[in-house]
Design brief:
This protein is of the alpha/beta class and about 850 residues long. Among the domains are: about 170 residues, Rossmann fold (3-Layer(aba) Sandwich), CATH 3.40.50.2300; about 240 residues, Rhodopsin 7-helix transmembrane proteins (Rhopdopsin 7-helix transmembrane proteins, Up-down Bundle); about 150 residues, no CATH class. The chain has 22 helices and 29 strands. An eight-stranded mixed β-sheet has the order 5-4-6-7-8-16-17-18, sandwiched between helices. Strands 23, 24, 25, 28 and 29 form a five-stranded antiparallel β-sheet that branches. Strands 19, 20, 21 and 22 form a four-stranded mixed β-sheet that branches. Strand 16 and strand 17 form a beta hairpin. Helix 11 packs parallel to helix 18, helix 13 packs antiparallel against helix 18 and helix 16 packs antiparallel against helix 17. The longest helix has about 40 residues.
Length: about 850
């Protein structure tokens, strides 16, 4: 280089460790240095103009690759990227810093996060990828060596950062099957191929795209390539990706030398200007320099089917970007698109449930009309029509709550929705309390009448039942007011489980009535309502043996309570599970409310309507009396005795105690009825005194009743015992002791009662006084206490028993015998 006849330029080399010292030294001799294979970014830094002023290279540098990457991002409208660099290797770190700067400052592309990795920090790959994933980076640009790339992509596979939602943009390594070196990773080759699918790689072009185009020397690319191949076949040379750049490099020097020779003189100072001014079509595209840097071609590859495929190129000399995507590939979005979707109840579903609720309201109003119209009918009157009205009003409230549950901000404003929160809670709570509180109050009255028989017991009036319902409503109102004061409702929008669809994130939003301490108040309500239903079940069970349909709804109330309990448990559980599924939750809640309310109304009122149709005038007293008799005696006697006898031999003492207790109760009832018979006896004696002055066939009649061996009853022929001649020859009064056969038959001869003594003697013969004792005159029968106000007073008549003798004594009406008139009321024991 110091010789007097030195070369005007140096051509080569391939290795950076050779080119760098030569380039630094050549500036002192002002000698041109042109490399055909150098790619290191240090020769394109800001201070490279001072360090290597005479150095040129034919291979397009990182300036071209950076521009190509930016155009690639812009072509797919990607404006958010994440990057990864190998920080301990300048070959990758330097251009990466330049890339991130240009992305944000020149192209307006946001760099979300740059992960820096080195050989010593290779174990931090997972943390860096997590950060990129957390920042929602779907387009990832990497600058690292092939060995680093295998480890990073393996970790990306474990983080599921691949597929249709991610795109990796990597350097072009010009190496064949570099991804197969998986020995130092936990991944297989197929794992890496999953991550690499559809990724991009950019590298300088080994030759121009149009190989048939004439180039310098008036030859086509194809012809020159064939000549180079033939030349290398006969000599020791290697034909690789740099061969075309070496060919264009020779032409660059030749054309620059030609420019510096003027009139046969060589002007070395004009060499650098000639290089920068060169522009010709070479094998590698348009050869053009700017600031000692080649402006050349960059090829864009995309990976599918296990190999790279060229899909486009970027010509830096002409600033032309061309790309053709694969038809089967859809570019992902650079970020997850958040779509907020407000969830509302389906209008079709709301219409169906609203229609069913309105039908329920109409049904309730029909029941209300029947209850009001027939309120004086015995069937309705004895079932507490006022309480029935409360049941209907409560049911209407629960039906209305269904309509309120489906209203949302499509109909009302946010402030209106907040008020609607209170309306839904109040209406449903009040409706439940009115309906079931009224039913339980009625059941409590029946329970009080039939389970605690006392002489001094007073009748339970309707106003007392109203007080019970009012107390329950007061408890509800107190809790609801306390709820509104301590933890008022507010309108909130909550986010449910998000749904990912490609790069779209669907965020379902629910409109809710939010209250800070609502869970505590809900628990209080559940406990109170649960205790109310448990108490109702207890009352319904206790009065299950009361067999007076007009008076007792226990069986139907019990069925209603069981139905509501089961439905509430199932409904609350399913609603809690499906609370984020608006349509399903609304459908289930509305169905359970409508079903339970309709079933309850039907169980309470349909049997009464059937009774009304069966007995429109309030007849069937005999059926009512039999039910009363069965309720009074059968419940506490036979039923409990039967249950007690079902136990084993070990409970004999307990059985005896129960039997004795039942015996005492029955004895008490017998004594009470005996007192009533005593009063009837006195009336009969008074009638006897009146009859002696009367002539004719009318008087008192006596009927004997005999228990047969089969358990039946034989009624003997009636006979007149006071008055004119008897209608039959005899009247037989049969007595039985402990179920034995008839022990005595007493015949009354036909005679005329001529005086008071005869009448009285005959009465004494029939009704001996020593068989009866007169107890307290106060009524002790629950029927007497409750039903006297609702039924017509019976005619003078009585059934009584003396030592097993059953006798009915009544005044003979004008219309005939009393048993021939089914509407004639009697008092039975």
């Amino acid at each position: 280089m110091s010789a007097e006849s030195r070369p005007f330029a140096l051509f080569g080399d391939v290795c950076t460790n050779v080119n760098e010292p030569v380039a630094m030294a050549s500036k002192y001799w002002n000698m041109l240095h042109l490399s055909y294979a150098e790619t290191h970014p240090k020769f394109a830094t800001s201070d490279s103009k001072e360090l290597y002023p005479t150095f040129f290279r034919m291979v397009p540098g990182d300036r071209n690759l950076i521009a190509a990457r930016c155009h690639l991002l812009l072509s797919y409208n990607w404006t958010r990227v994440g990057t990864i660099k190998q920080s301990d290797e300048p070959r990758y770190a330097l251009p990466h810093e330049t890339l991130t700067t240009k992305l944000e400052n020149v192209y307006g592309i946001r760099v979300l996060y740059t992960a820096g990795l080195s050989v010593d920090q290779i174990h931090n790959i997972g943390f860096e990828l997590d950060e990129l994933k957390r920042r929602d980076a779907h387009i990832i640009i990497g600058d690292f060596s092939p060995s680093f790339a295998v480890k990073i992509l393996c970790e990306a596979h474990s983080k599921e950062m691949y597929g249709t939602n991610y795109v990796w943009i990597l350097p072009g390594y010009h190496e064949d099957k570099w991804w197969k070196n998986v020995e130092e990773t936990n991944c297989t080759q197929s794992d890496l191929e999953e991550v690499l699918k559809w990724h991009f790689a950019l590298e300088f072009a080994p030759e121009r795209p149009n190989i048939e185009m004439p180039v310098v020397g008036n030859k086509s690319v194809h012809q020159v390539r064939d000549e180079l191949k033939e030349f290398c076949d006969h000599r020791r040379c290697i034909h690789d990706i740099h061969s075309s750049y070496a060919y264009d490099g020779i032409w660059t020097l030749a054309l620059a030398l030609n420019r510096t020779i003027t009139d046969g003189d060589f002007l070395p100072n004009r060499t650098f200007e000639a290089i920068n001014a060169n522009a010709f079509e070479g094998l590698t595209g348009l050869v053009k320099f700017e600031n000692n840097e080649r402006l050349g071609l960059v090829y864009i590859y995309q990976w599918w089917d296990g190999s790279y495929n060229k899909i486009g190129h970027y010509d830096s000399a002409e600033d032309v970007f061309v790309i053709r995507s694969h038809a089967d590939w859809t570019p992902p979005l650079d970020a997850t698109v958040v779509v907020r979707e407000r969830l509302y109840v389906s209008l079709f579903l709301f219409a169906i449930m609203s229609g069913l609720a309105l039908i329920g309201v109409i049904l309730a109003l029909l029941f209300l009309a029947v209850n009001v119209k027939y309120r004086n009918h015995r069937i309705i009157k004895m079932s507490s029509p006022n309480m029935n009205n409360l049941i209907i009003v409560g049911s209407i409230c629960t039906y209305i709550s269904v309509l309120l549950l489906g209203v949302d901000t499509r109909v009302v404003s946010e402030s209106g929705f907040q008020k609607l929160c209170y309306a839904k809670t109040w209406v449903l709570s009040v409706g439940f309390t009115l309906a079931f509180g009224s039913m339980f109050s009625k059941t409590w009255r029946v329970h009080s009448i039939f389970t605690n028989i006392r002489k001094d017991k007073k009748a339970i009036k309707d106003y007392q039942l109203f007080l019970i319902v009012a107390l329950l409503l007061g408890i509800d109102a107190f809790i609801l007011c306390l709820w509104a004061i301590i933890s008022p409702f507010r309108f909130t929008v909550t986010v449910t489980e998000t749904i990912h669809s490609k790069n779209i994130l669907i965020v379902p939003e629910l409109e809710r009535c939010q209250s800070d301490y609502s869970i505590y108040f809900q628990v209080v309500f559940y406990v109170i309502k649960g205790m109310l239903m448990i108490f109702g079940c207890f009352l319904a069970w206790e009065t299950r043996a009361v067999n007076v349909p007009a008076l007792n709804d226990s069986k139907y109330i019990g069925m209603s309570v069981y139905n509501v309990v089961v439905m509430c448990v199932i409904g609350l559980s399913l609603t809690f599970i499906l609370q984020e599924r608006v349509n399903e939750a609304f459908a289930l809640t509305s169905f359970f409310i409508i079903f339970c309310t309709t079933l309850t109304l039907s169980l309470v009122f349909v049997p009464k309507i059937i009774e009304l149709l069966r007995s429109p005038r309030g007849g069937e007293n005999q059926r009512y009396r039999k039910g009363m008799m069965k309720s009074m005696v059968g419940k506490n006697g036979a039923d409990k005795l039967q249950r007690s006898l079902s136990f084993g031999a070990d409970g004999i003492k307990e059985k005896i105690a129960q039997i004795e207790e039942e015996n005492m109760k029955l004895h008490q009832i017998l004594v009470t009825k005996s007192g009533e018979l005593w009063d009837l006896l006195e009336r009969l004696r008074q009638l006897g005194e009146n009859v002696r002055d009367q002539k004719g066939s009318r008087g008192l009649c006596c009927v004997g009743a005999q228990l047969t061996s089969s358990g039946g009853i034989n009624l003997n022929e009636p006979s007149i015992i006071i008055g004119e001649e008897m209608k039959s020859n005899s009247a037989v009064l049969s007595t039985t002791q402990n179920g034995s056969a008839t022990q005595s038959i007493e015949k009354i001869d036909q005679t005329k009662a001529a005086n008071d003594n005869g009448a009285n003697n005959n009465m004494d013969a029939i009704l001996p006084r020593n068989h009866l004792r007169k107890p307290s005159s106060e009524p002790t029968s629950p029927f007497d206490m409750k039903a006297n106000n609702n039924m017509a007073k019976p005619s003078p008549s009585a059934y009584f028993s003396t030592s097993g003798l059953s006798v009915m004594v009544m005044q003979k009406p004008d219309s005939g015998w009393p048993w021939s008139d089914p509407n004639q009321p009697t008092t039975m024991l």
